[in-house]
Structures are given as C-alpha cells and as structure tokens.
Fold this protein.
Amino acid sequence: MGLGSLALFVTGMWAMVLAVAAFLVAFVAPIGFYLFGSESSRATVSAVQATIAIVAVIALVFGLSRMKRIYLQKKLRL
Amino acid sequence: MVDVASLLIIYGVVVSAISFFAVFFMTPIAIKSLTAKGKVVPDAHKPNKPSVPRPAGPVLMAGIAAAEIVLYALTLNTAVLAVLLTTAIAFAIGYIDDNRVMPGWFKPVALLAAAIPLVVLGAHDNYLNLIFGSAFIPLLYIPLIFVIIPITGNTINSIDVLNGVASGFIIIATVPLLASIAIFGSDEVLFLAALPLLFAAIAFYKYHKFPSRIFPGDSGTLLLGAMYGALAIAGRSEIIGVIALLPAIMNSFLFLASVKRLVEHRQVKARPVTLLDDFKLVASEDRAAPATLVRLILADGPLGEKEIGYQIFKLAIFTALLAFASIAIQYIFWL
C-alpha cells in the first residue's frame, strides 16, 4: 500500500481539477452565445460566467472534501 | 552579431549562475553569523535536539534579487520587476513572522499585499489557461491573483515540517512549471525569470537537506512559494503550477479541514505525529490531531525523518509527472 494510496488520492485530485477545467472550457466559456445570442452585453456574460465558475470551484472543494473524508476514514480511521 | 536565441541562453546562464553561486557561498556565512547571534532553534526530531540557525530567507532573497535585478537591467521587462517585488514582499512578511510571534491569520492576509505588484505592473494576462482551452476573464483574473499568491506562499510554508522538504519540493515542482512557461508563456524573459527560483533552491538544498545545517524560516518558505505563484501567473501556467503543487496543497487542505480555522502549527495542541524513542516518527492516534501529509505517510508504520522526506519527494515527482501529462494535453488542445 504505502505511497500507492496517496498517489491514487493525488491522481483523483488531478482528475477533478481537469474535470472542472474541461467543464469551464466546454460549457462556461461559450455560455454568452447559448444564453444571450449575439445581443449579450460583456458585463452580463462575465457575471454569469464568474458565478458558474465560482460554483464549479466550490463543488470541486466539496468533492475533494468528501474524497478526503473517505480516504481519512480508511487510512487513519478518523 | 549575437542572435536572439544565443542571447537568451547567455542571459539564462548568467541569472542561473548568479542565483546559484550567491546562495551557495552566502549560506555558510549566514550559518556562522546566525549561530554567533544565537538565532537558532532546536531540531526537534533528532537526538539531543541540536540547535539549527534560522532564517535563511535573507540569503535566498539576496541571491534571487541579484539575479532578477540583473535580468531586469538586461531586458527592462516589467514582469520581471513584478515577480521580484512579489517575492520581496512575501519575504518581508515572512521575516516579520520569523522575528515576532504573529497570529495565524497574519501570513495569509498579509500575503494579499504580495499580489499587488502583479496587478499594478500588469504582469498577468486576461486569459486563464484551462488545459483544454483558455477563458477570457479580464475582471475575474484580478481576484484570482489575490487568491493564488497567499495559497502558494502558505502551502510551501506549511510543508516545511522536516529537514530539506520545502527546498526539495520546490525544486521538483519548478521543473514542470519551467517547461510550461517555456511552451505557453507569452514572453521568453519569464522563463529566464523562473530560473533563479530553481537554482537558488538547488544551492540552498545542499545546506537544508537532512541533516539540516540551516532552516529557511517563514521568510524563506513564503518567498519561495510566492515567487512560484507569481511565475505561474505571469508565465500563463496557473493550472499546471497548481497541479505540480498538489501534495503541498493537499497538506494545507487536510490541515485546514481538520482545525477549521487559520492557525499556526505551533498553536495546535494535539500533534499529528509522535516521536518514538528510536527517533522514528509515528502517526498520532489522537482523533483531535490534525490530518497532515506526514501523518498520512506514517499511517502504514513509523519512519525516520529522512525516509519521510524521500516519500514526500517521490509523491512530488509523481505529481510533477501529472503536471507534464497536463502540459501534453494542453499542448494538443493548444495546436
């Protein structure tokens, strides 16, 4: 076991970071076009994008926190 | 006539040599000077707790500053100045903490000031590289800088728990960061500006590795971490920089999630690890003790300080490989 389980945990963190990055690029970046068409104002689109990005990052932190809890329970019985 | 590529190589060799040799030759002087002044702390994990001089931050700062000032004089690139100022402010914050007992919130809050030069001197881009593409976030990017610098500064600070770990870790994490800056950075000068971080850390590791002859102190670790963050921002390598730093971020995240507030490690009563009679460390069984990277490494059984440091380096190398994999993915989407 040893470092292998920690490496697996870090790989999980990496995969989650990549998943959030992919989500932001695929869905949040072009959201102005989807929601407002060509009549969108830059400020409105930016505000919506910022809100979704912050929610995505908070979701990432919650995901990491859950992963951490499961890992700590297995590893340290906390 | 010297072409641009040759000039970059010459500048790279010059700044690397300045930072490396300045730290390499000044550190023994600092060891003697600090010891003579009685600026020493006990090395808690060794027999008889030998006194080790601290902080080495001023030496690291001098070596890095000399190299960056020469680079700025040669290129007049304001991003170099921004990185240097961010590093210097982080060093000053750490130096205050080295000499006075400050509350837990001091370092993260004060490090907000270290982000200011990057914003004021416009060292950042308006695009955030997100591996699979980039996002144009001119307004959101500025608060992001104020988040990144305190995080990188404090994560390197919080991983400085055993001999040689902070300097060794930053050496390993800086390699993929340099590669990313070279590929995705908008300016070759930023790659040159990152070299002093690597070479100063390599020179310092000679004295900081197990058994440490000097400790970096908060001034040393905060400047290394803040400079790393500043380079990631100015070099358009934010996410790659975060990935290479994952074990240190995980350590901070575990600690903060355990204690649920900003506190200094010395303020936490329940210790995450216990020192055995044979000077091996073992994971604490106290449920109130914070979870840390070292405690997780020790969950499988007791280890010596040197062995734990190598385990952390192995994990850092693994994460650096993940960062290189991320660079490869980003490169494919970038073409």
User: Anything to note?
Assistant: Chain A has three helices and no strands.
